[in-house]
From TrEMBL:
InterPro entries: Pr6Pr-like. The keyword Membrane applies. Keywords: Membrane, Transmembrane, Transmembrane helix. The chain crosses the membrane at residues 39-65, 77-101, 148-169, 201-223. This is Pr6Pr family membrane protein. The keyword Transmembrane applies. The lineage of its organism: Bacteria, Bacillati, Actinomycetota, Actinomycetes, Micrococcales. It comes from the Bacteria. It comes from Microbacterium thalassium.
Length: 245
């Protein structure tokens, strides 16, 4: 029961990071005279941002189910799978940001007013530090976690691959809101107009896919281990009760 409220708190934190980032993007669009609709569509097209919205929804659904179904039975398969699906990209994005991108200057941030600058820093830390850590803690310690079959890995890897296809198709159909190019990609390594062209993009996609396979496998393995351990403990407790009776 307590963990349901922990998950609600996590959902609130994730939502606050999303809203802070939204405020930043709206403010910058107005300051630079960019099309607000295009800016917002691009904001929602980042894997980090879209996944954060899914995290909010999944955590709330999981918490409500737990509150309505108290006990020790494992959570439904759909909730367990959804938690795994949103955990994998959140962990990967958090790792990439903190290992490779932290500290890199942002030209837009240099001209932000103090409040917008603070919102930007808040969104970055919540989405790339707080939320990944929260989902790791949930993976390791949340009660009633259900073990997933190994075929679930196809779903965990499939989600970012579908997003990648969407991104590559959309990138050539929309222009950069700042007018610098007739295309727009959320991440530079996915932009085929760079020096490496599509060959470089495919290498990055291949590497990211491997990373998702590794992270997804770890998530499933941990969930299966915790589920089996919970079943053994429940069986031992039942045996003790039967002996006492």
């Amino acid at each position: 029961m307590l963990w349901a409220w922990v998950r609600i708190a996590g959902a609130v934190a994730a939502a606050s990071g999303f809203i802070a980032g939204l405020i930043v993007n709206v403010a910058r669009a107005r300051r630079f005279g960019e099309d607000l609709g295009a800016v917002l569509a691009n904001y929602l097209s980042f894997l980090t941002i879209f996944t954060t919205l899914l995290v909010v929804i999944v955590l709330i659904v999981a918490a409500v189910w737990s509150l309505r179904h108290p006990g020790t039975s494992p959570e439904p398969f759909a909730i367990a799978l959804s938690m795994a699906v949103v955990t994998a990209p959140t962990l990967l994005v958090g790792a990439v940001y903190n290992l490779l991108l932290r500290g890199l200057p942002s030209e837009a941030a240099l001209t932000d007013p103090p409040f917008i600058f603070a919102c930007d820093r808040y969104a970055i830390e919540v989405l790339h530090v707080v939320l990944p850590l929260f989902l790791v803690i949930d993976l390791l310690f949340a009660p009633r976690r259900r073990g997933l079959p190994w075929w679930s890995l196809t779903v965990l890897v499939g989600y970012p691959l579908v997003w990648t296809i969407y991104t590559m198709v959309r990138g050539e159909l929309v222009a950069n809101p700042d007018g610098s190019a007739p295309w727009w990609y959320p991440y530079p390594f996915l932009d085929p107009h760079g020096d490496g062209g599509y060959g470089s993009v495919m290498l990055y996609i291949g590497g990211i896919t491997v990373a998702f396979v590794v992270i997804g496998s770890l998530i499933i393995a941990i969930g299966r281990f915790r589920h089996r351990r919970a079943l053994r403990r429940a069986g031992a407790a039942a045996a003790v009760d039967a002996t006492a009776a």
